[in-house]
Amino acid sequence: MKNLVFLLLLFITTPISHAETTEKADGRRVIQLREGPEHVIWAVQLSDLHFSVHHPDRASDFKRIVGPALSMISPSLVLITGDLTDGKSKDLLTMKQNEVEWMEYQNVMQDVIKRSGLEKSIFYDIRGNHDNFGVPIVGGSFDFFSKHSINGQLGRKQNVNSVTVQIGDEKHLFVGFDSTMSVGLRGPTNLFGHPADQLLTEIDSELSQWNSQSTKPVTKITFGHFPVSFSASSHSGRSLQDIFLKHSLSAYLCGHLHTRFGKNLKRHHYMDHNFLSQKFFQSNMHQIPLGSTKNCSSGAPSIGEFWEWEMGDWRKSRAMRILAIDRGHISYVDIDFKSGFRKTIVVPTFPLDSRFMSRSSSQKYECEHMVAQSYATIRALVFSVSPILSVVAKVYDSRSGKHDLVMEELMRKRTDNSSRGDLYAAPWNYRAFEDSSPQRFWLEIEVTDIMGRLSSSELRPFSINGLSAKISWTWKEFFVMGCQWDTLYYPLLWFAMYFLFSILIVPKALLILSKKRYTYKNFAANRGFINCIAWVLQELCKMHVVWYGILGYLFYLVLFPWFVGQVFTDGESWGYMTYMGWVVRALDNQESHKYIGSPDVMVIVLPHIVFVVLPAILVSAALAAEKELYRVSLSGKKEDDHEQENGRSLVYDYQGSRRSKFRFGARWIRKIVLVVCLAVIWKHLMNCRALIKAYEMNPLIQFPAYSFSIPLMLVYAMYKTGRV
Q: Which top-rank group of organisms is this from (predicted)?
């Protein structure tokens, strides 16, 4: 009896293996799946765990939910795409490494791997920017990722790791990479991925490993932390997008943005030689090609394209993604565990969701190069803790404006004695669903288990023709996914700076060099937006202390360091920041790292210019103009050229506002402007407080010009304009 119990415990605690892992001569790993279902593999992605000492529920929920979920799903790979720990203080302002969080991550992952019954070697975790906060050098004393992560424990020290999952003669190549800063700054100026030329070369090499050895197409998938929009170009100007387009990836899986910007953080990249869309921005999720892409000739090159799929986070959304590849058709389902463990999960694998179709699918269908056998059935993976009674495929027609059921077919489990997972299929006449609209037909899979519980897949459109259903981004989704911030930073910065210099210098030049003066009298005689702006800005020029102070401050922002701060976790290394990035002395004190963290510094630079400096100039000008308006009102000039038409002049309204319906008292415009002025000062001081906490600075010593110039100039403007 004791021997029987021992054998049972040994069976329970031994990882279940449905595959054989081999290592090629060049050290690259290949996982050969030994069991069915045939032609199908699946993997799990998790991202942005943000384990924190201040939020213990993130780790406890992960331990409670993910282990049993992985045991039920039994994936071939588990990919954890960055931000494993949070690295933030309770007030979210100080960002550096905390080893307690890393020890918790290591312990939780050990428990999850044990409870899942999976082999540790199929787990791949990579750094995110939070895992790199304040890490001066990889392998140093503050590089806790190398010590506590799964990759670190398994000796995966390189920045690029690849693994091939093979079933039969079908190969599926996964390439993961770490594109975090080589010198990890503290946040908030550690926001972008920085793939160096060497990293891009390594990724290119890994993606090419089967090019000359495989006669069948290889499904290629990459995974990293940063979206393409938040990845900088290398010194030579190459980018991740260039490498991915070259190899025509099926998908790039990433994280970083969470879900607060929207749920459609997906982007289709296409090589179309459009300069704006390739370098600066893409206006919508689907990139429209220039000209036809159809090429049915033998040996035609593959279409340069790939999908980028950012996923939600574990931090708040408790999200997990299951990615399935069925005969080269790639699909995924994002699962929300906020309400607890899911007892049944359905992943339709064919037909594909038309919202995320690649152009190659359409070309294959048009050219009749597709594998007809892969179109002959509707297929879905079903994972459940209980035996399944029935699986039903339902197809709806939306041509009438509502979803009319046009097909209901019982799906049968593929009988291949698979222990990896259950694949269900139903035969159908797929040509009956050919249509020019990619959103006419919709698919739903309904599953009933032995307990009577009904589970359904998300209702989703499909297109047998391979046509793409267009989805529009919201402005927030476009802001984070459509804009290539690395290339936009300097154009936006210099446009803003030239604008600020122009609104200061042009009115001053007109005042000095031109005989024409823009005064309130001119504006009253010829009211218009241009005359109003010219008058207001010239009034600012007459406040010499404020005007010269703002001009000098702009030159300071361009020519000098903005502030000095502690940039690493050790609290002993100092650096200074300019609009071009940080200058930090290396640990050996022999040389400096110059201008690292660009364009990451844009999160400080652009908001300061747009939301502090520009409003400060406009508010100062408004105070000066209000003073002139009040002075004129006191002089008794109560009429203008439009008095007969309007009944009362602007001056008379301003001076006589005490008789109006809304009584603001004397100089009510000034009181409104003063409120705005105080709001600008408050905004600036809150920004300074955040920087003080982030980089542990003394504002009187490390950044007095940045901290006090704007408030002092605004206070002086308020004082000066209060005297008439």
A: Eukaryota
Determine the Cα–Cα distance for residues 672 and 650; give it in Å rounded to an integer. Answer: 17
Q: Are 278 and 476 in contact (CB under 8 A)?
A: no
User: Residue type for 141, please?
Assistant: S
Alpha carbon distance 547, 720 (integer Å): 13
- DSSP labels, 62-111: HHHHHHHHHHHH--SEEEEES--B--B-TTS--B---HHHHHHHHHHHHH
d(CA 484, CA 556): 28
Q: What are the residue ranges of helices labelled H in 367-519?
A: 372-375, 475-477, 485-513
Between 43-52, 248-257, 358-367, the lowest mean confidence (pLDDT) is in 358-367
- Token code pair at residue 362: 């359409």
Which ranges in 163-282 belong to alpha helices (H)?
Answer: 197-207, 240-247, 275-279
Burial class of 343 by CB neighbour count within 10 A (0 to 12, 13 to 18, 19+): middle
- Tokens representing 277 are 């869309």
Q: How many CA atoms lie within 13 A of 397 on its CB side?
A: 11
Does 10 have pLDDT greater than 60?
no
Reported pTM: 0.91
Query: What pLDDT does 228 receive?
Result: 96
Residue 278 reports pLDDT greater than 80:
no
Q: For residues 243 and 360, give the distance between their C-alpha atoms in angstroms, rounded to a whole number.
A: 18
Q: Which uninterrupted H or E stretch holds 167?
A: strand 160-167
| CA pair distance 352, 375, nearest whole angstrom | 10
Q: ∠ at Cα 591 (585, 596), nearest 5°? A: 55
Q: Alpha-carbon distance 439 to 168, whole Å?
A: 34
Rounded to whole angstroms, the Cα distance separating 155 from 161 reads 11
pLDDT at 276: 67
pLDDT in tens, 667-692: 788 999 999 999 999 999 999 999 99
Mean pLDDT, the chain, rounded, equals 88
Task: Give which of 316, 311, 353 is closest to 334, Cα–Cα.
Answer: 311
In this structure, how many other beta carbons lie within 10 angstroms of the beta carbon of residue 667? 21
Instruction: Give CA separation, 712 vs 557, 670, 706, 719, in Å.
Output: 16, 18, 11, 10
Query: Is residue 142 left, alpha or beta, with left meaning phi > 0 and alpha meaning psi from -120 to 50?
Result: alpha
